[in-house]
Structures are given as C-alpha cells and as structure tokens.
Amino acid sequence: MSDIFREIDEELRRDNFAKLWERYGQYVVGLAVIIVLATAGTVGWREYQARVQRAESIRYAAAVELVQKNELARAADDFAALARTAGGGQATLARLQEAALRARAGDEAAAIAAYKAIAGDSSVDTVYRDLATLLAALHEMHSDDPKAIIGEIARLTGPGNPWRPSALEITALAHLRAGERNEARDIYKSLADDLTAPQGLRARAAEMSAALSS
What we know:
The chain contains ten helices and no strands. Helix content is 80%, strand content 0%.
C-alpha cells in the first residue's frame, strides 16, 4: 500500500495527472467514496440521535404535562412506555418518574415493584440503583418488616456512599417502627452532628434526637 502512495506522490510532482488518473483513478475514486460514505454515516447517525432525543424530550414533556393535570395513572403509563424505548439516563429518569407516580396514585405495590426493578437492573448506574433501593425501602416502611428494611439498606450506610445520610435516616425510622427507640435516637444524634449531611436532614435529625431524649 505504501508503494502505491509513493508512486502517486511521484506522479503528482511531475504534474502527470493524466498518467496518474489512468493508473490509479479507480483506486482514488474508491477511497474518496469510502471517506464520503463514512463522513455521511457519522453525520447521519448524529442527526438520527438528535432526532430521537428531541422526540424523547417531547414525550417526556407530554407526560409531565399529564402530571400537572393530575392525570397520574396516564402519566405513569406514558413514562413506562418512554422508558422501554428511550436510552441511557432518559430511560432511568422515566422509570423513576413512573415509580413515583404509581405511589402518588395510591398503588404502593406497583411503586415498590418499579423501584426494585430499577435497583436490580445492572445496566443502570449504581447511584440510581441505590436511590431506587432507598425509595423502595421508604415505601415498604408501613407494610414490611422493619428489620428486613434495615438489612436491605445497610450497605448504603457505609462511609463514602452518596446516599449515606438518607439511608441512615430511613434506618432510624425503621428502628422506631420496630420499637427500638434508643437505636433510633443514636442514629438521629449522629446525623445531627454530621457536617457532611444536608442541612435539612440535619435539622430533622436534631428535632428527632431531642424528642427521643426527652
């Protein structure tokens, strides 16, 4: 292949374009076609992706509009349909929206199932899977064994997990539901003193710690 390009270079230097075209014209045209097709394919794929993203955004906005009209069940169905065809983060967000709307519509079982499906999906980013685990636990609080809930979210309470403060708050709530007042108080106190926790969460924890200490 290098010999071909060297010969082309020599012919160009002699300005012998007729001879060059006679010998290598077909090769050069073929190469040019490949380059054009590759470029067109790349541009076409990008345009296709942009069209898909625009279409997904329109569908997402339409579902949000249904929420604003309080048509929660329809909106949840639309988010579920979008999640099946959308890609990446858009699909994950649509699934989380669907689960939240199932809960708001009063279907706790469907909401928990939707959250657990996200939590168990290895294709979803870990941070969203952990969030889904927390939200499922929160919705299970009134119906499931509080000890089981504590076990489900224990791995999220470790240092370095972005959901640690929320996981500890839910853990404290589960201890309270299990009648373990002291355990709940200790967690709330540690959260109130945790400067890395969100301010609103720290305030809630301080109030709960004070209430449980009285």
